[in-house]
Design a protein that fits this description.
alpha+beta; about 15% helix
Length: about 60
């Protein structure tokens, strides 16, 4: 790996740590557009990405 990248990983403490198995991303009060001619709806969105078996799950909470 290039020297600057290696130094960055050493400095940031990423070397020797376990790799992630999943990631969770949460978005609150997002305007979601269903159609260009309709007003957007407000949603809360939670997404899980899993590494071992590539899977993405999303939970959307809203009311209409």
């Amino acid at each position: 790996m290039p020297e600057p990248v290696r130094r960055y990983f050493e400095y940031s403490g990423h070397l020797g740590t376990p790799k992630m198995s999943y990631m969770k991303a949460t978005f609150k009060d997002v305007d979601f557009i269903l159609s260009p001619d309709k007003a957007p709806i407000r949603i809360d969105y939670t997404q899980y990405n899993f590494v071992r078996e590539p899977v993405r799950l999303a939970y959307i909470d809203t009311s209409m």
